[in-house]
TrEMBL record:
SUPFAM superfamilies: alpha/beta-Hydrolases. Gene3D superfamilies: alpha/beta hydrolase. InterPro entries: AB_hydrolase_1 (IPR000073), AB_hydrolase_fold (IPR029058). It comes from Trichoderma semiorbis. This is AB hydrolase-1 domain-containing protein. It comes from the Eukaryota. Pfam families: Abhydrolase_1. The lineage of its organism: Eukaryota, Fungi, Dikarya, Ascomycota, Pezizomycotina. Residues 26-137 form the AB hydrolase-1 domain.
């Protein structure tokens, strides 16, 4: 793995955020989710730093980045602003963004708000937001799958929570233990505030305006079919949300963390898509 001898910091307002930087070339930003941190993408660093500037930010709420204890600080639009601030800090006009889970929601928000800063978008096992707004409000199966989020939404800083339950779907025992230790030593309030601000909650049955939830640049969706949190219906009619090309890759043996659980295939598929994107073949 290329050596990043120390972490770097940038600020968005009064919130300081850590990031790691590897390689040279077009900017490729990987954005982690929950329960996780930026090094969840360690299996992508070697491959893509060969010819890209690989950037791994640590989201606000996840140490050593700042953890503001204000629910409004975790609005998806605010966190998308962190990614704009990162590009400004590095004097990068546009980048390719890839995200999973919380990071996947954040990069989608970035697309909706600041499409001029993206060259392309990679979505790993994260709800297609327009479809999710329908499923969570009208589909009993999806409501059942996302019951876990209700405790997160109600959580207040300092409340007790079950760490083993939080990390239960990380399939690699060694990595699960590593993340459990990281969470044990990190304040949890900001992480759960994200769910309060961004995740649909009861009362269900609402009809949400999804007209602004379209993707304005080439995209690839990489989806582990053993996904524990989201119904396969998330991929139904996916094409209607994408204004340019979209490629969908399904991995039968991977789950919520395909970039870790089936890293060789993910890297190969992502490399293929990047080549097509960067040579104007999409």
């Amino acid at each position: 793995m290329p050596v990043d001898e120390y972490s770097h910091l940038f600020s968005n307002g009064d919130v300081k955020i850590q990031y790691h930087l590897y390689g040279q070339g077009p900017a490729l930003v990987f954005v982690h989710g929950h329960p996780d941190n930026e090094m969840t993408f360690s299996k992508q660093i070697d491959e893509f730093s060969k010819d890209h500037t690989v950037i791994l930010p640590t989201l606000r709420g996840y140490p050593p980045s700042d953890v503001p204890l204000d629910p409004d600080a975790y609005d998806g639009n605010v966190m998308a602003g962190d990614l704009v601030a990162l590009l400004d800090h590095l004097k990068i006009e546009k980048a390719i963004f890839a995200g999973g889970d919380v990071g996947g929601i954040t990069v989608q928000k970035l697309d909706f708000l600041h499409p001029e800063r993206l060259l392309g978008l990679v979505i790993f096992n994260t709800p297609i937001l327009g479809t999710m707004m329908h499923l969570i409000h009208h589909d009993k199966e999806q409501q059942e799958l996302t019951k876990y989020s209700l405790k997160y939404i109600k959580h207040n800083p300092g409340d007790e929570y079950d760490l083993d339950h939080v990390v239960r779907t990380i399939t690699d025992p060694e990595y699960r233990a590593e993340i459990k230790e990281y969470l044990k030593n990190s304040p949890e309030g900001g992480m759960f505030y994200f769910f309060r601000k961004n995740f649909p909650a009861p009362p269900y049955g609402q009809n949400i305006d999804t007209s602004g939830m379209h993707y304005k640049m080439p995209c690839v969706v990489i989806w582990g079919m053993q996904e524990p949190y989201f119904s396969d219906k998330m991929l139904d009619g996916f094409y209607k949300w994408f204004d340019q090309s979209v490629r969908v890759v399904t991995l039968p043996q991977a789950g919520h963390w395909p970039w870790r659980e089936d890293a060789p295939k993910v890297n190969r598929e992502l490399r293929s898509w990047l080549k097509a994107l960067e040579t104007g073949q999409l």
